[in-house]
Design brief:
By secondary structure, the protein is mainly α. It contains three helices and no strands. The protein has helices spanning about 5-35, 55-65, 65-75. α1 runs antiparallel to α2.
Length: about 80
């Protein structure tokens, strides 16, 4: 196999990996949200939304890895 063929294969794998990142992080954020404990309404520091640091991190990572999808749809 030539170096060009190897480079093309590597580029194809990187392209698919880039497309897999954003939905994976979105799914992880959803799972983290579902697994979050329900808020204690009688606690002094009760929050209405079960959003902790990990959920925010997964959402931000999902948004950070969104450009390959925007390029694929023609919006980026």
């Amino acid at each position: 196999m030539t170096m060009t063929g190897i480079a093309n294969k590597a580029h194809d794998k990187a392209h698919w990996l880039g497309l897999a990142a954003s939905p994976t992080f979105a799914l992880m954020a959803l799972i983290a949200t579902i697994d979050a404990p329900p808020p204690a309404l009688c606690a002094a520091s009760a929050r209405l939304l079960p959003i902790d640091g990990m959920i925010v991190m997964y959402v931000l990572m999902s948004l950070f890895h969104l450009p390959p999808w925007l390029k694929l749809t023609g919006r980026g």
